[in-house]
Specification:
Oligomer: single chain
Shape: globular
Strand content: 15-25%
CATH architecture: 3-Layer(aba) Sandwich
CATH superfamily: Cytidine Deaminase, domain 2
Number of helices: 4
Distance between the termini: 32 Å
CATH class: Alpha Beta
Largest sheet: 5 strands, mixed
Radius of gyration: 16 Å
């Protein structure tokens, strides 16, 4: 039988996960003029937001090119993905989870999953869990 404090901890973790994913969805739905409305939030073990990012179709970053070459052996996917932009903004802080939301133009959550490039970067950053829509 599960102890009462274990049940309460599980409930609070689930609610934190839900709240953070909902926040990510709301922020992604506010993005304008984007081909893909994708938003990423990185949190620490206590659930504090450390960094966030969105897809960029005008900017690039050397880290994006580096992981692109590692994952695909190509250099054609050089625009910054939301996950990578959040990792760049992380600036070496100790991260635990990343939340990624993708929404349609009308704000409906869509299935999302980090691409191989971002998965590699997330793993190298030491992030333990990826939560997506």
């Amino acid at each position: 039988m599960m102890k009462w404090w274990t049940r309460n901890l599980i409930k609070s973790l689930k609610s934190l996960r839900g709240k953070m994913l909902n926040r990510c969805i709301k922020l992604a739905s506010k993005l304008e003029n984007k081909k893909q409305r994708i938003y990423a939030i990185i949190v620490d073990k206590k659930g504090r937001i450390l960094a966030s990012g969105t897809n960029s179709y005008t900017k690039s970053h050397p880290l994006q090119a580096y992981y692109c070459e590692l994952a695909t052996k190509e250099q054609n996917k050089i625009f910054v993905h939301a996950e990578l932009q959040a990792l760049v903004h992380l600036k070496g802080q100790q991260a635990d989870k990343i939340f990624v939301a993708r929404v349609s133009k009308n704000g409906t959550p869509l299935p999302s999953s980090p691409c191989p490039i971002c998965r590699l970067a997330i793993r190298d950053a030491g992030i333990h869990e990826v939560i997506t829509t």
